[in-house]
Amino acid sequence: MPHQMIPRNNHILLPGSALFGLLLLLFGLFQAPLPEILSGLRTIVLHEGVLITDYIALVGIGPAFVNSGLVTLISVALLKLAHDPVNGSTLVGVGLMSGFSLFGKNFVNIWPIIIGAALYALLRKESFTRHLNVALRATSLAPMVSFIAIALNPWMGILMGLVIGILVPPVAEHAHQVQNGMNLYSLGFACGLVAMMLVPAFKAFGLEPASTLHWSTDNNLYLGTVLTLLCLFFIIVGLIRSPKQVLSNYWLLLRTSGRAPSDYIRTFPLGTVLVNTGVNGLLSTYYIILTGGDLNGATIGAIFTIMGFSAHGKHAFNCVPVMAGIFLGGLLNHVDPNTPSLQMAGLFGTTLAPFAGIFGWPFGLLAGLIHSSVVLQAGLPLEGMNLYNNGFSGGLVAIVLYPVLISLVRHRRPVLVEEDLFALFESDTPQSVDQLPNRKD
After folding, report:
1. CA distance to 49, 59, 109, 147, 378, per residue, from 46 (Å)
2. pLDDT at 212
């Protein structure tokens, strides 16, 4: 069937992201009286927020979602003011900020790190726009800001954030290279390395950070319904203009590897990406429900993250094998699959989705199986200070597993690569989907 060009309409991504943040804010405001919301926000700001601090368990659904809405709107405003190019990384940043502000980030502790990254850009005599996405993701270490502010004083917390904002960008640049695009949360690995340096320093000076557990339950029906409606909305909006063509394009997207960088905003029409976002959101939501887990701030944060990465590498075909591997790992080892850490790993572990995309589902299953064990141990020295713990663990798995598979696996799964997709969607001459080559990534 010949392909017909479809307008991308990417100019609506930032307004759409702002609308998403506003909906989160309004949803939270309707969950509790205003005094309770304000009291809850104060509690969030004055809490360390180390892993795992589910803000729904800490202060309730209302304040948790208001905080998420505020952080999302702040992030979109920064992207707009910095004239950041709209692409897949834009939605990744929005998904990460909205998701992790349900557990760990808040509208106060993110600022010192972002300002620190701006200082780094100033020292390098470069535009802050170039570093903004890294600055937003570096707020993975926001609990360090809160911890130092509470343990010592607010000014020391601000200084800590400035130092983190300066350290993470250069570390991230080099850490990304050694992961070979196989760990989608490469900033999580970089932040883990920085935390590996700072947390022992805290302890050497007599500061004793400690991970914690605030975990809410019994909200699956309510929150599951809300998430289902949200995901169906994405799918319907994606399909509404040209359902047959969008589904045809979605089938193409499922044939990509997801290896970073896989910018689906650049290589697919927007409707296709929205359908992928909705499908991945449903997949993640019902993974938690069907495996007996809990929908709460932490797991919804993971679901929002997967939805964000639906514009940058994740799809059903490369995520499901990794999820299955992590769940299998929980059945085989001594830790129940429904423990909070493995519930989160079952979702965040899809950072290793490119293994399934490139090598096939058995190797995605293998990557998930290994990750289920590594993630339980790798974050212990970090004392819950790196919110992207699965990104750090995923980086360790990717660095070891990828070269082994490259050496031993001769026959890899054929995938579509970016230049083929550009040829399909940007050419003035209509092409047949079936004429696109299958390549080995």
Report:
1. 9, 12, 10, 9, 27
2. 87
